């Protein structure tokens, strides 16, 4: 294992910093997110593995827009592009554009539109850098790219030399498993997962030269995002988080979410451990969607509270993720011996869920704690939330990471939030002096951290040290508060109303 310093960017909602003797007798609303300077944190690195399968190939496709300058006399400049071209690869299931060079000035931008489903993306210079000089993923075999020149900009241009072209699963005969051979993660002889539409759970896409791959990621009540550590290793491959993922094609070829539901992962924010079962986790942040300027909690309107299994004492848990699928006996899993050529179907790498019995928590060391459960999962489901329903409220007690089930039964496993390093990373997101408030958290024991938040803002303020940040979960807090110290109030996952 090695460690390195990685800055973690705060993309939650910085709302207001309140000085001494501030009195709030009316209503206070906390809502939209902004950015804050990143503190320094550490990441640990290990060997990673791929999940899922999205074959593709690079294809030379030179496009040069030429140089363009804003013309003040052009009345239609705001609605008519200075340059437009359709990128087309007949029969391709999806495309992604790569920009080798560009100058977009202060106000110019690109608009790309799929001719198959109308999905579009607008990128200015800063957003194109966040997307690592690439577009979103577009379904279909044709994408129109248009350049719009903004007021005062000169010598605006873009160039492409190649694009990424998706391949149909049925056109690629895999010559080896997706990764090393591993036990099947279906607990028995039938796959009991069913389609689901959990708004807090998304699909992570990470890139590699010949096959983009997938994991599962999800929204936490603090505005953070969680997945398995092996999904962040190697870090440079971690690319986007997408929600509202559509069905795959009949042969299992993936299709992508509308670009308005795709988010570039901020690689500088990622903190992860990839040290095997019990210490396999990653926490990260994303950039706002360039079309909507929203972060996922606000666009999706959903998130998961987190809790310690020792507090929630689950009997049954649910795992929701984006695992592969196909006919028995392989169920699309090409990681098991004899299934290297397993067929996949339209449910493959789409969101599915299953619930089953909870097996307990197992501690090897303070930073090596795992939970087990008899719940069907599949590759690309790594990173899924392990969900307990406590007093009618959904609480995640860990991160799914490992398939131990076989056709003879057994249980799968995930990293528990009792892992001290993971717990510390969550308690310190997005900074070191965090206090958490959540009137809807079901755990009765309270201490002000993310696992046991204060139920009222007043308690949070009272116990907060000077210069702390209060992270308040969305909702109405019918109370009057008096603030006599410098604190910052944030609302990272939705509207907060405070007052009587």
Describe the structure.
There is one protein chain. With 500 residues, the chain is mostly beta strands. It has two domains: 1-53 and 195-500, Thrombin, subunit H (Beta Barrel); 56-170, Jelly Rolls. It contains five helices and 34 strands. It has helices spanning 125-130, 296-300, 309-312, 420-427, 457-463, and strands spanning 2-7, 14-18, 22-24, 28-30, 40-45, 54-64, 83-88, 94-97, 101-103, 109-114, 120-123, 138-139, 142-148, 157-166, 194-195, 201-206, 211-219, 225-227, 238-242, 262-274, 280-286, 305-306, 316-321, 352-365, 368-373, 385-390, 393-402, 412-416, 434-437, 468-472, 475-477, 481-483, 487-490, 496-498. The strands form seven sheets. A six-stranded antiparallel barrel has the order 16-17-18-21-20-19. Strand 20 (262-274) and strand 21 (280-286) form a beta hairpin. The longest helix is centred in the C-terminal third of the chain and has 8 residues, at 420-427. The radius of gyration is 23 Å and the shape is flat.
Please outline what is shown here.
Helices cover 6% and strands 38% of the residues.
Would you spell out the secondary-structure blueprint of this structure?
Layout: E1 2-7, E2 14-18, E3 22-24, E4 28-30, E5 40-45, E6 54-64, E7 83-88, E8 94-97, E9 101-103, E10 109-114, E11 120-123, H1 125-130, E12 138-139, E13 142-148, E14 157-166, E15 194-195, E16 201-206, E17 211-219, E18 225-227, E19 238-242, E20 262-274, E21 280-286, H2 296-300, E22 305-306, H3 309-312, E23 316-321, E24 352-365, E25 368-373, E26 385-390, E27 393-402, E28 412-416, H4 420-427, E29 434-437, H5 457-463, E30 468-472, E31 475-477, E32 481-483, E33 487-490, E34 496-498
Parallel strand pairs: 22-27, 29-30, 30-33, 31-34
Antiparallel strand pairs: 1-5, 2-33, 3-32, 4-34, 6-14, 6-17, 7-13, 8-12, 8-14, 9-14, 10-11, 10-13, 15-24, 16-17, 16-19, 17-18, 18-21, 19-20, 20-21, 23-24, 23-26, 24-25, 25-28, 26-27, 27-28
């Amino acid at each position: 294992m090695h460690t390195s310093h990685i800055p973690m960017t705060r993309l939650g909602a910085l709302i207001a910093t309140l000085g001494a003797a501030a009195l709030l007798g009316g209503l206070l609303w906390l809502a939209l997110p902004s950015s804050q300077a990143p503190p320094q944190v550490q990441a640990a690195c290990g060997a990673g593995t791929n999940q899922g399968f999205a074959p593709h190939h690079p294809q030379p496709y030179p496009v040069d827009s030429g140089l363009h300058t804003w013309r003040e006399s052009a009345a239609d400049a705001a609605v008519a592009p200075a340059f437009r071209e359709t990128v087309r690869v007949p029969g391709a299931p999806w495309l992604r554009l790569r920009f080798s060079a560009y100058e977009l000035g202060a106000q110019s931008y690109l608009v790309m539109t799929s001719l198959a489903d109308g999905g579009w993306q607008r990128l200015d210079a800063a957003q194109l850098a966040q997307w690592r000089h690439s577009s979103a993923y577009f379904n279909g075999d044709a994408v129109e790219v248009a350049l719009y020149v903004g007021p005062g900009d000169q010598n605006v241009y873009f160039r492409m030399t190649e694009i990424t072209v998706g391949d149909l699963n049925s056109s690629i005969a895999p010559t080896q498993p997706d990764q090393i051979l591993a036990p099947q993660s279906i607990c028995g002889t039938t796959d009991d997962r069913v389609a689901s539409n959990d708004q807090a759970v998304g699909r992570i896409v990470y890139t590699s030269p010949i096959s983009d791959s997938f994991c599962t990621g999800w929204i936490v009540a603090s505005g953070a995002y969680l997945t398995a550590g092996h999904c962040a290793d190697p870090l440079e491959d971690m690319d986007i988080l997408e929600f509202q993922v559509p069905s795959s094609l009949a042969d299992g070829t993936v299709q992508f979410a509308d670009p308005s539901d795709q988010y570039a992962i901020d690689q500088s924010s990622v903190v992860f451990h990839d040290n095997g079962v019990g210490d396999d986790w990653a926490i990260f942040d994303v950039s706002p969607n360039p079309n909507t300027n929203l972060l996922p909690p606000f666009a999706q309107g959903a998130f998961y509270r987190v809790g310690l299994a020792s507090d929630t004492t689950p009997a049954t848990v649910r795992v929701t993720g984006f695992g592969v699928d196909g006919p028995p006996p392989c169920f699309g899993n090409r990681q098991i011996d004899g299934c290297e050529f397993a067929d996949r179907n339209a449910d493959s790498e789409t969101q599915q869920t299953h619930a089953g019995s909870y097996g307990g928590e197992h501690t090897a060391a303070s930073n090596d704690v795992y939970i087990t459960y008899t719940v069907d999962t599949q590759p690309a489901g790594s990173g899924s939330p392990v969900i307990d329903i406590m007093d009618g409220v959904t609480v995640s007690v860990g991160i799914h990471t490992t398939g131990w089930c076989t056709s003879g039964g057994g249980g799968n496993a995930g990293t528990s939030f009792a892992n001290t390093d993971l717990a510390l990373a969550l308690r310190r997101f997005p900074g070191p002096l965090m206090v958490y408030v959540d009137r809807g958290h079901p755990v009765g024991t309270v201490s002000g951290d993310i696992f046991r938040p204060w139920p009222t803002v007043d308690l949070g303020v009272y116990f907060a040290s000077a210069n702390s940040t209060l992270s308040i979960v969305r909702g109405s807090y019918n109370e009057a508060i008096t603030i006599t110290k410098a604190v910052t109030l944030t609302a990272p996952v939705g509207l907060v109303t405070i007052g009587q």
